[in-house]
Design a protein that fits this description.
The protein has 683 residues and is of the alpha+beta class. The chain contains 27 helices and 21 strands. It is globular and about 85 Å long. It starts with 5 loop residues before the first helix and ends with a helix.
Length: 683
Amino acid sequence: MKKTNKLIHETSPYLQQHAYNPVDWHPWGEEALAKAKAEDKPILVSIGYSTCHWCHVMERESFENEAVADFMNEHFINIKVDREERPDVDAIYMEAVQLVQNGQGGWPLNCFLLPDGRPFFGGTYFPPQPAYQRASWIQVLQNLSKAYKERREDVEAQASQIVGYIQKAQTQFSNKIDIPKGEQVFDRKFVKDVFQRLAQNFDEENGGFGSAPKFPGTMPLQFCLNYYLAEGEKKALEQVLLSLDKMSNGGIYDHLGGGFARYTVDAAWLVPHFEKMLYDNALLVGLLAETYKLTTRPLYKQRIEETLTWVEREMSSEEGGFFAALDADSEGVEGKFYVWDKAEIDAVLGEDSKLFCAFYDVSEEGNWEEKNILNIPTDKTDFLKAHAINDTDFDLFLKNCRNKLLAARASRVRPGLDDKILLDWNMMMVTAYCKAYQALRIEQYKERALKALNFALRAFQIEEDSLHLYHSYKDGKAKHHAFLDDYAFLIEALIEVHLITQEIHYINLAKEYLDFVNNEFLDHQQHLYFFTSAKQQDIILHKKITYDGATPSGNATMLHNLQRLGVLLDATAYREQAVKMALTIKEQIREYPSSFGQWANALFLEVYPLKTVAVMGTKYAATIQDLLAKSFLNTFISTEATKAVRGLTIPKVTGETSIVVCKDYTCSLPVNTVDAALELLSE
């Protein structure tokens, strides 16, 4: 078999998986584009990622077929892209494929380009023989090669039309946004409308939103939590608790090793698509922590601790970063690492197996393809009553059993690890550790957040004393200029680290990066940010990405950053910029809150009163920790030195603890206990 281009072999884990097959893949870049122009061949760009099941299927079925590969090598310049390393390339050609395929997209993403990079056709998975109402891969290749040679004008016209549609989509937002003088831009009715739109899609039986396949939906759930805090709407909180309970007890959660899978193929959270992504777990840990502050439910504490234990055990590099993902497959079989025969559990647990299996839904016939996915279908309290078991003893029993099974599972062939370290996902995990520290007061979480942040600031830096950063890091080498999401989540992480340390240095650095992003990425006419900086020259256009996908969009995250730094630094310009951004996407938030969940969460700081708590005295640090462990809306907790309280009349006090609560630019008299401060905040 022919060895692939050496540059592919030296890059990301995803591309390494395709390093030895008959197709002469090239990495994305000027070299491959120049080769296409020199040889006047169309380009096939195939985009995927390491945990993509159908990417591996298509590789085995078609790309490793000698006859198919020979045809590809003769008639096309073949480019392989890891979408997680080059999300900018993926975003452009995903939109092109969705235009061609009536809105359908996904991975593997196979897009055919002219030598100048303009797309003229594309699709996702194609079978080796015609099936599923799809042409075979070789038929697609033959037809497009023929069209390129014999109907070049038609192909050129199609490419121009597709690019025109993509460019037009970038200009859909108003260029003139003025903040109405003397008016509140958003109001409680607008927020209520958003909640009611979300509520139409509640799954009131299983939690979450909609039907199968089922994704966690952390951003809309955070909106529901905020709406409860703002309005006391019980239905909002009930949906959050139902969703977190069902996910925490369902098969989407790894009950032995910790951590959540990407999604489930059913509505009841039982059957996951078994890959584990760093970003999903960061978002879920954050939501669990925020909800634990309000409820102190032991289940949420347990899931936070187990998930972060998994992150430390399996997803952490020695240098301090976090790896990207774990594959769903092992030994070529999806989920094989995670599922069990009852006989296997019996052999490990012996006489303890009966009770364990009853609790975790394990049977001889299995609950998925004759295998068992561990899950908890029965309410724990009801189970304890039915079996006359003491709660504390039962928890210890379950923990011992899980540890035995986890040790036994360790001998299996493990799923593949995508060990590249991505700046944006790492900063999301730093934020998650900060929120977990606030909620649980575990010092290790604070230390881990600082370790990961310091590693990133060092390892991703392009030049010393420069704010320019890289996006991806592996084996001691960083590469690819950072994108909007990288900087947005870095700024968010710096703000969160400031909250748990109260060190002004982190806020000052966050401001430096925010100003840098405004300079490098902002479209000042449309009040939105491009995904790529002007320095990114190997793409056909610069896109703005506004909707929230599996992760919050960089634009929505920057909106939150502007709001929070506007308060913490008393920077009116940032607050006004945030309002203009929110106004730009106002109608999308109202009509499609599930796809603009992070944007919707920004409404609360625009609609509901802001509160600032200044903590002073010799025990200010411990007092701030006590306050951060509580659940508040729009409440900024800081020391007297923070600019969030600049301009407010803060009485000078001495002693162990003094707390001043400020609302509507009016401050209370100092109180000296957290309970007294909470009473003032609740008024």
